[in-house]
Amino acid sequence: QVCHGLRTPQLPIWLCSLSGRHSVLFGTDRRLLSDWKTERVFHLYFYNGQREQRKTAHLTIDTHSHPWEEAPREDPSSPGKRRPPLEMAIRTKWEGGTVSWNGTDPFF
């Protein structure tokens, strides 16, 4: 039997399988679990445990960004429009949200 603490996490955490690699995406603000208003701009952390990742990536998610704030539209198949799998996974929960990598090179 699974204990109550494992069924209901105290902090938001997602186990991910991106490009065949397992990783963890988590937040340190427990209000993300219960208060939708905190989903405006918030921070998540990403760790994949691979040697090439030197430190946990700090991401800022903005769910109310505006289309005119983005770069001009390109052909989705062009190399400049390619998005990291992590961003695509985040957008399955927060559609249309923008992800700032805060100085970390995005993981492809």
Supply the key terms.
108 residues, alpha+beta, five-stranded antiparallel beta sheet, 5 strands, 26% strand
Description:
The chain is 12% helix and 26% strand. It is an alpha+beta fold and 108 residues long. Strands 1-2-3-4-5 form a five-stranded antiparallel beta sheet, covered by helices on one side.
Average pLDDT value? 82
Largest sheet: 5 strands, antiparallel
Radius of gyration: 15 Å
Low-confidence stretches: none
Shape: globular
Through-space gap between termini: 37 Å
| Approximate helicity band | 10-25%
Number of domain modules: 1
How many E-type strands? 5
Work out the helix count. 2
Name the structural class.
alpha+beta
Q: How much of the polypeptide forms β-strand, as a percent range?
A: 25-35%
Strand and helix layout:
Elements: H1 4-7, E1 13-18, E2 21-26, E3 41-47, E4 57-62, H2 85-93, E5 98-100
Antiparallel strand pairs: 1-2, 2-3, 3-4, 4-5
Family: Belongs to the MINDY deubiquitinase family. FAM188 subfamily.
GO biological process, one term: protein K48-linked deubiquitination
Region (Disordered): 62-87
Provide a quick synopsis of the model.
With 108 residues, this protein is α+β, with helices and mostly antiparallel strands. It has one domain (13-68, 80-100).
